[in-house]
Amino acid sequence: xxxxxxxxxxxxxxxxxxxxxxxxxxxxxxxxxxxxxxxxxxxxxxxxxxxxxxxxxxxxxxxxxxxxxxxxxxxxxxxxxxxxxxxxxxxxxxxxxxxxxxxxxxxxxxxxxxxxxxxxxxxxxxxxxxxxxxxxxxxxxxxxxxxxxxxxxxxxxxxxxxxxxxxxxxxxxxxxxxxxxxxxxxxxxxxxxxxxxxxxxxxxxxxxxxxxxxxxxxxxxxxxxxxxxxxxxxxxxxxxxxxxxxxxxxxxxxxxxxxxxxxxxxxxxxxxxxxxxxxxxxxxxxxxxxxxxxxxxxxxxxxxxxxxxxxxxxxxxxxxxxxxx
Length: 325
Fold this sequence. Notes:
This protein is of the alpha/beta class. It folds into two domains: 3-221, P-loop containing nucleotide triphosphate hydrolases (Rossmann fold, 3-Layer(aba) Sandwich); 227-297, Alpha-Beta Plaits, CATH 3.30.70.980. 34% of the residues lie in helices and 26% in strands. Helix 3 packs across helix 4. The two termini are 25 Å apart. Mean pLDDT is 87; it is low at 314-325.
């Protein structure tokens, strides 16, 4: 099987600090590989190593079958990179930005012109193509940045949190663009702060934490790893925490998660309605008053919390019940 990228036992250190500690992962061609993890987990470091920006201490890294350390120039001919922030010149026009990148890729003037116009049209930026980028909205800049990363028609595209900070409408536009790119044969590595985004786009997901891969699989496989359903409720008082844990712990299939800030408690149960009824009975018998009691199927939010002990940054709880794969 051909891989868009393959990493084996990757180690990256800054002095005495180990940022990546034996990371191994791979992605099939023509798919979206989602990379999740809390801030500082090592996601951006992985992207920078794959895109030849950073060197590494040991391990093996290949992109499109090409060794990153031995032949970085050849790797760069096969990839595109979209970072967390738009890397565009705000004093140039949208057209000038993409055309310039095309020329830097070595495209002839005529080919660079043709591809620039195609990309601007595809990203719905034709009306503003001759305006300075400093007049663009944040979403328009992000689209322009993505367009610039595509002008060389890369086989593999690395997107490092491409939709962070964008409004919902622009995020959905970029989701559709990413889906169209995959349909056309482009392989994509996507890091994201939005679990809903990974759920919607990624064919396979790896969760990294403290420089290690702690889980890997499809969205459904990761959710199924928790087993059963989740009973969730909010304590009225932090002083009830120990008593509540003692009352419901026998019904928990795996580790109970508790958020000190919101006083929300999540109990993974083997059987949904039966588990819910048992917990309600236990709370009543112990004269414990709770609120926002609910039962739901495990989401990527639950998986993330269970694996890392932290909520996904910038993710709103309301997203939990939206469409899942």
